[in-house]
Specification:
The chain has 99 residues and is an alpha+beta fold. It has a single domain, classed as Arc Repressor Mutant, subunit A, CATH 1.10.10. It contains three helices and seven strands. The strands form two sheets. Strands 1-2-3-4 form a four-stranded antiparallel β-sheet, with no helix packed on it. Strands 5-7-6 form a three-stranded antiparallel β-sheet. A hairpin with a 3-residue loop joins strand 6 and strand 7. The longest helix has 15 residues. It starts with a strand and ends with a strand.
Length: 99
Amino acid sequence: MDDIIIIGPIRFNARQYQIERNGKTIGLSTLEARVLITLAAHANTACTLRQLSLEVYGIDDAGNMIKLFIRHLRHKIEPDPTSPTYIQTVPGVGYQLVI
């Protein structure tokens, strides 16, 4: 995976755990970055909560924590977190990153 991932107008530096949005640099926690890296590795494809839990935490029952980090990421990435453009919910499946 590349160190720089482009998500619409956002640049995500996967090595430094930072995003650039509207000329501002926003830091991500390690787990936020790991969730985003996992979604980016499967861009435009739905990831289940179990899959995200396994890839981020190494366990398959961390779905509630994944949901929390998705919410945090949406507030940092999305122009309108209540109507996400990039980190979308796939009903009955999980989440996908649209790039």
